[in-house]
Design a protein that fits this description.
The structure holds two protein chains of two kinds. Helix content of chain A is 33%, strand content 21%. Chain A is α/β, with parallel strands linked by helices. An eight-stranded mixed β-sheet of chain A has the order 6-7-8-3-9-10-12-11, sandwiched between helices. By secondary structure, chain B is mostly helical. Chain B has a domain of 213 residues: MetI-like (MetI-like fold, Orthogonal Bundle), CATH 1.10.3720. The chains are: A alpha/beta, B mainly alpha. Chains A and B meet through helix 3 and helix 4 of A and helix 9 and helix 10 of B.
């Protein structure tokens, strides 16, 4: 990470950005989401807080079921019917939860979402051109020709040269990587201020992943967009994001400048995640794994640390009280032993 | 590409018709019963007369020769002569096909307009309307046409006397008036099925990820429904409507009998009872042709609606 972005990020590292110098573009505070499952409400987020400054990229990392995608969905108000939401979401100072009708639609044009599976997220019976220009034409009344012209330009910037031909094609005629690039171009077409990227490269094969990620990262910086980048890949998040938030069982466990996350984590869970990543430069008898199984948000205890059952540093007290998210060394951590453990959690220094 | 697809479908249509004509012909060839006995009313005829009749109706020719003769005639619009009525089968069919066509068309319109209409309403508006549509269609999907016919006659012809119970009626309005109850009887269970499939497809599409994409881009709800939900739901709706409408052609026989309509289906049943083979073959061929044609139309429509249908590929 560049020093500039690291410095910028550290200024905004107060709890949920409360002490940030500028106004946060997105501010989520104490977000609680419950979804109806078989007739009863199940919590998926337990008071999640995070903030993103204009132009900043925040990574959101966690295992499956930790609530990463639900966070993005809750921000864009895309939760399934019957979902119960508490807490506040403010975008550029506006209250997102209270938005209705045209105001909500205008908000959604300022926040663009890039989904994990581009195939499922494009209408199979409509042409790429129609898919790309739909929002411009219906929301901003841009004439078709003008909209297509802009679409072709953006396709070029994501590395798709034969735009006019692509616009006439259907999604099933494009490969997954190509389609995800179309998705990115489409998301940028309406000139949003915030990107919500929900595992944008997970469904792609590895060589395509790197390519798509590079394009996304470059365009985002060029256009000065803020981004919430959701992934289960700690290293990838650290590589493209200024700060990274680590989630576990519906809560944020740690927020830290990405460059420090791997070598100097504040939370034992982050350290375990970093250690569990297979290494290419070392031969190990077996892959490191976090003992136990990941807890889903609905299984997480209200009055204990959710990671306690798997934590190598666990003490009796950890099972009695929910730790708070507190500031430490310019980051945030939800661990009652954080001060004690600081500096000792760094991942495998050979 | 589209033209080749169309040509391929037409070739398949011709093939299907050829095979079904052979099946129809051989089924009746193998069927028990002697047409001459029917003709004579069970009396024994002098051997000379039998021989003349056998020669006239080619009853002693080899099977394939008889089939070829019949097929050749059928291609020229000559379906042979009714043994019972001694009239051209084509003429007999022509005088009755209008009734059946009108009945099936009427029932199809009911299915398409009311069935799809109810399904859309239920799919788009959860709540009381949805629940009542579900309940009503669950019951009516299980009503066979002949039961519907009896109940409709009992209620609307005998009790409240809004509609006639018998006959074809004169003029456009007379025909519509007379065909209303039969069309309802014919349509009712298919209508319920189409309504349920329509509702399910609309619901299904609402849950699709690409609809979520549209919502996430701030597209107004109306447009999301029109351009994504309904447009895509049209594919399964077309399929099920096509199948049910094609099946009406066969079920129409029951309804025509119940309402004493002078249509092809009723005549088919009558001709089969009296062993009037030429008529049975002729009507069967016409009905099969109509059935296959409806299916071709659905296939073409399907290809128009869904770009993923590979126009160049052979049917699987």
């Amino acid at each position: 990470m560049s020093t500039a972005s690291a410095a910028n990020a550290s200024t905004s590292a107060g709890p949920a950005g409360r002490h940030a110098s500028g106004r946060a573009l997105l501010e989520v505070r104490d977000l609680v989401v419950e979804l109806p499952v078989e007739g009863s409400l199940r919590p998926v987020l337990h008071g999640l807080s995070l903030s993103i400054q204009p132009g900043e990229a925040l990574g959101l990392v966690g295992e499956s079921g930790s609530g990463k995608s639900m966070t993005a969905r809750a921000i864009d108000r895309l939760l399934p019917p019957g979902a119960r939401v508490r807490g506040t979401i403010r975008f550029d100072g506006r209250d997102v939860m209270g938005m209705e009708g045209p105001e909500l639609r205008r908000f959604r044009t300022e926040v663009a979402m890039i989904f994990q599976d581009p195939r499922a997220h494009t209408n199979p019976v409509r042409r790429i051109g129609d898919f790309m220009t739909e929002a411009l034409r219906t929301n901003e009344g841009v004439p078709l020709r003008e909209a297509e012209h802009r679409a072709i330009q953006l396709l070029e910037s994501v590395g798709i040269e034969d735009g006019p031909r692509r616009l006439r094609q259907y999604p099933h005629e494009l490969s997954g990587g190509l389609l995800q690039r179309v998705m990115i171009a489409t998301a940028l077409l309406t000139r949003p201020r915030l990107l919500l990227a929900d595992e944008p490269t997970t469904a792609l094969d590895v060589t395509t992943q790197a390519e798509v990620m590079a394009i996304l990262d470059e365009l985002r910086r060029e256009m000065g967009l803020a981004m919430l980048f959701i992934t289960h890949d700690l290293e990838l998040a650290a590589a493209v994001c200024d700060r990274t938030a680590v989630m576990y069982a519906g809560r944020v466990m740690e927020v830290r400048v990405s460059s420090l996350l791997h070598d100097d984590p504040l939370h034992p869970y982050t350290a375990a995640l970093a250690a569990a990543r297979p290494r290419i430069d070392a031969t190990l008898p077996r892959l490191a794994a976090i003992p136990g199984r990941p807890l889903s948000a609905f299984e997480a205890p209200a009055d204990a640390c959710a990671f306690a059952s798997r934590c190598p540093y666990v003490q009796e007290e950890c099972g009695r009280r929910q730790p708070e998210l507190v500031e430490l060394d310019g980051g945030l951590t939800r661990c009652r032993r954080a001060v004690e453990l600081r500096g000792t959690l760094g991942a495998r220094r050979a | 590409m589209r033209l080749r697809f169309l040509l391929r479908r037409l070739a398949m249509l011709a093939g299907t018709l050829l095979v079904s004509s052979f099946v129809i012909f051989s089924a009746l060839f193998l069927a028990p019963g002697n047409p001459i006995a029917v003709l004579s009313g069970g009396r024994s005829l002098p051997p000379d007369a039998v021989r003349i009749l056998e020669a006239r109706y080619h009853l002693n020719d080899p099977f394939l020769a008889q089939y070829w003769l019949w097929l050749k005639g059928a291609l020229h619009g000559d379906l042979g002569i009714s043994i019972a009525l001694r009239e051209d089968v084509s003429t007999l069919i022509a005088s009755r096909i209008g009734t059946t066509a009108a009945l099936v068309l009427y029932a199809s319109l009911l299915i398409l307009l009311i069935g799809i209409g109810l399904g859309l309403a239920a799919g788009l508006r959860p709540g009381l309307l949805d629940t009542s549509v579900l309940a009503v269609t669950a019951i009516s999907a299980a009503i066979p046409s002949f039961v519907a016919a009896i109940v409709l006659i009992l209620v609307f012809s005998v009790k409240v006397r809004w509609f006639p119970s018998l006959g074809n009626g004169q003029g456009v309005f007379g025909t519509i008036h007379h065909l209303t109850l039969p069309a309802v009887a014919l349509a009712i269970s298919s209508l319920a099925i189409v309504a349920r499939v329509t509702r399910a497809s609309v619901r299904e599409e609402f849950r699709r990820e690409h609809v979520q994409t549209a919502v996430s881009r701030g597209i107004p709800h109306r447009q999301v429904v029109m351009r994504h939900v309904l447009r895509n739901a049209a594919i399964p709706i077309t399929t099920v409507s096509g199948i049910t409408i094609a099946s009406l052609i066969a079920v129409s026989a029951v309804v025509e009998r119940a309402f004493s309509l002078n249509g092809l289906g009723a005549y088919l049943v009558a001709a089969a009872t009296s062993k009037d083979f030429a008529v049975v073959q002729g009507i069967s061929l016409v009905l099969v042709t109509a059935f296959v044609l409806v299916n071709v139309v659905v296939d073409v429509l399907y290809a128009v609606l869904d770009p993923r249908v590979d126009l160049g590929a052979r049917a699987r």
